[in-house]
Amino acid sequence: MKVAVLDINGKDTGRQVNLSKDVFAIEPNNHAVYLDVKQYLANQRQGTHKAKERAEISGSTRKIKKQKGTGTARAGSIKSGVFKGGGRMFGPRPRSYSFKLNKNVKRLARKSALTIKANEKSIVILEDFNFESPKTKNFTAILKALDLVNKKSLFVLGGSNNNVYLSSRNLKGSEVITSSEISTYKILNANQVILLESAIEGIESNLSK
Fold first, then answer.
1. Which residues constitute the signal peptide according to the record (predicted)?
2. What ranges do the domains of the chain cover?
3. What's the average model confidence in pLDDT over 130-153?
4. pLDDT at position 1, please?
């Protein structure tokens, strides 16, 4: 699967890279994609929600009326959840929403996501670049050249590059990650996935295991 390599000005360099069919042209597995996205979103939840139960409410514990003869339901403490100001019955408690997912399933999900983007012609191969210093306007110029302004874009680098990362940090619709940080959610959430040449080998190596 050959794809043209563009420069930072959006022009064809005349070179092509061969993307592995085992990573970018498989039969997508929608259920694996669903599970991997579900796990990613679950891991983002803090799980710090808490409501006070009747044991945690300040108030008297005396029995508010006699057990029988009132013609109404039995009632004990005023802190019961049936009364205004009482504790919450079956309220939320702090918990972790994370769950385990088999590595092979996650690998299949990411290959499926890349395949989906490849089928949509939403993957761009960009030659490696660097900035002398972090400047947002330099990164914005690349977005304009690639027609990615006001679009969600995911740039995948071969390795960490602080200048490029810091240059993109203030731009809401763009995200810069390394090849080892790709996730199914991030791939599918972007309108365009921009792979730097140096990132391709790392992606294929990680997902072909």
1. none
2. 2-45+99-207, 48-96
3. 93
4. 79
Q: Provide the whole-model pTM.
A: 0.84
How confident is the model at residue 98, as a pLDDT? 95
Question: How far apart, in whole angstroms, are the C-alpha atoms of residue 178 and residue 104?
Answer: 20
Beta carbons of 156 and 195 less than 8 angstroms apart: yes
Do the beta carbons of residue 87 and residue 79 sit within 8 Å?
Answer: yes
The topology (CATH level 3) of 2-45+99-207 is Ribosomal Protein L4; Chain: A; (3.40.1370)
Are the C-beta atoms of 92 and 51 separated by less than 8 Å?
yes
- Per residue in 151-189, pLDDT (tens digit) is 999 999 988 899 999 999 999 999 999 999 999 999 999
Q: What number of CA atoms fall less than 13 Å from residue 44's CA on the CB side?
A: 8
Residues 6+ apart with CB under 8 A from 143: 149, 153, 171, 174
| Cβ contact 148:154 at 8 Å | no
Taking the C-alpha atoms of residue 119 and residue 200, their distance in angstroms, rounded to an integer, is 17
Residue 140's Cβ-count burial label (10 Å; 0-12, 13-18, 19+) is: middle
Q: Residue 25 in contact with residue 1, Cβ under 8 Å?
A: yes
> Burial code of 146-179, b = ≥16 C-beta within 10 A, e = fewer?
bebeeeebbbbbbeebeebbbbbeebeebbbbbb
Q: How many Å apart are CA 141 and CA 174, to the nearest integer?
A: 13
